[in-house]
Amino acid sequence: MKDKAIKVDYLARVEGEGALYIKVKNGYVVDVKVKIFEPPRFFEAFLRGRSFREVPDITARICGICPVAYQMSSIHAIEGIFGVKVTEQIRMLRRLIYCGEWIESHALHIFMLHLPDFLGYDDVIQMAKDYPDTVQKALRLKKIGNEIIRILGGREIHPINLKVGGFYKLPSKKELRKLEDDLKWARDFSIETVKFLADLEFPEFEQDYEFVALRHPNEYPLNEGRIVSNKGLDISVNEYDNHFVEEHVPHSNALHSMIVGRGAYFVGPLARFNLNFDKLSDIAKEIALEVNFKPVCKNPFKSILARAVETLYACDESLRIISEYDDLDKPFVDFSVKPGIGYGCTEAPRGILYHRYKVDEKGTILDAKIVPPTSQNLKMMESDLWKFVATYLNLPEDELTWKCEQAIRNYDPCISCATHFLKLYIERE
Amino acid sequence: MKGNREKNFLIVGVGNVFRGDDAVGILIARFLKRCFKENVKIIGVETSFDELIQFFGDYDLIIFIDAIKSGEKPGKIYRLKFGVDKIPAQLEFFSTHSVGLIEYIEIAKALGKLPKELIIYGIVGKDFDVGSSISSEVRVSCKEIIREILSEIGA
Fold this sequence. Notes:
- Chain A: One of its GO terms (molecular function) is nickel cation binding.
- Chain A: Its cofactor is Ni(2+); Fe cation.
- Chain A has helices at residues 42-47, 55-59, 67-82, 88-119, 124-130, 132-153, 173-177, 180-198, 240-243, 269-276, 282-290, 303-324, 373-391, 397-409, 415-418; strands at residues 4-8, 19-25, 28-35, 162-163, 166-167, 212-215, 226-229, 234-235, 244-249, 252-259, 340-348, 351-359, 365-371.
- By secondary structure, chain A is an alpha+beta fold.
- Chain A has a single domain (4-418), classed as Cytochrome-c3 Hydrogenase, chain B, CATH 1.10.645.10.
- In chain A, the strands form 5 sheets. A 3-stranded antiparallel sheet of chain A has the order 1-2-3, with helices on one face. A 3-stranded antiparallel sheet of chain A has the order 6-7-8. Chain A has a 3-stranded antiparallel sheet with strand order 11-12-13.
- In chain B, strands 1, 2, 3, 4, 5 and 6 form a 6-stranded mixed sheet that branches.
- In chain B, helix 1 (24-36) links the parallel strand 1 (9-14) and strand 2 (40-43).
- By secondary structure, chain B is of the alpha/beta class.
- The longest helix of chain B has 17 residues, at 136-152.
- Chain B has a single domain (9-152), classed as HybD-like (Rossmann fold), CATH 3.40.50.1450.
- The A-B interface holds A 12-17, 39, 42, 46, 60-61, 63-65, 67, 108, 112-113, 123-125, 128-129, 132, 135-136, 139, 142-143, 146, 156-158, 416, 420-421 and B 18, 42, 44-48, 50-51, 53-54, 96-99, 103, 106-107, 110-112, 129-131.
């Protein structure tokens, strides 16, 4: 392989549309671009002038896979402005609905989008012919995640039951208990999945990443915590804008996030796993250790394993929350509206999702900022490809292209929410 | 309104109401849902096909309605019978999900869960930009598709 350019017009199996461009000259990688075409920040502009009450439901529409994450980050940001303190039970139910989202999102990515790469199939359709049972079980797992969202979120299509202060309406103990058998099955299947995935062949690849995730003193992070990294970052959510910047890059009109003074960073399941392993439930820790998957894992291809361990955790955590749940009198807490700026950061399936809102005395949105996890990982994806292509330059062309796409899928990029639009090109000369 | 009682049918509208002509499948489905309620499902950006495919096999007839990006005249209607008509290569069913309509149908097929008859109505769209509204050409085609679907289900 001497001079060549890899261009892929359409990057399959990432959420949305994407494009990747890599150029190799005289045996060296000279250019890597993950291309993003971002229309104006539609949602941020759309939110201005709206009531704070509408924000959770509007932002939920940004992403089809992680509506709960958008709702939770926006709700936490706005609650920060009004000084809302929810009850422990509301807090737990928020964790539960978030677990539902992790389960359905991780199940989609592990089985439908990423596993075909590892097993050598073009896509899940081909894989389904040889692994019908696995695909059926994956669909069942995903459905169980959706079912949690349906019961707590109020309806099947997309959750509308979450609001600033709590929930509009709460499920009964009996309704939640109905999930238990399915969740026990899901937990068993997740254990099976971790063991199955651990036997896959992972490309040898590591980088000295800066992993960034939330960290909470008592629990594996979902809704709350400080933003920490393995390189010394430890800040509260409202300090985010002082430590992270978004930069314009010429080849894309999307923004690339960086840590001030250090550059690219890595968010998502592998980052959470590496920074919060000690907060996983016993069974999740035990199974991870059994397959010799432990922190700090610096191979991004093993993100699929982190996703599976988190799925196992989410099933286990859901069962715990349901078993401790008692019917509540009031599904929300009262609060009064006041002007100010609020910050929210929660762990979306793909990594930290940051929201910032400024509201006036009536609670009208004056300004909104939303930084999805995929924008935060973009720079890291490019960095991986620089190094990955250089290491594997001798692979046959189509195999290298495939592996590059697989490397991007390590991050489960959700392009519809990162940029609301992306095309991916790989080009070889 | 009742459909043909002999036929156990499902109508599925696919799309994204925030992206111009991609809304067409959802708008038609919303209209038909008023008449046929449980026999109509809507697959928006916030949801996915995977729960549905478990039930594909329970139906005699499933009709999908989705927007198409092909560069052809906006509003042009395609009626494709899955397994009979070849899906023309230039047709791109517009999807913000990586696993799109055709892929899910293929997965259902691989799992042996296809309905007896599966028809896809595709409408060529003009504008898919975030925040734009449905084009007048596509709006005109909606009426024709609704008429065709009603005759399809024998209503």
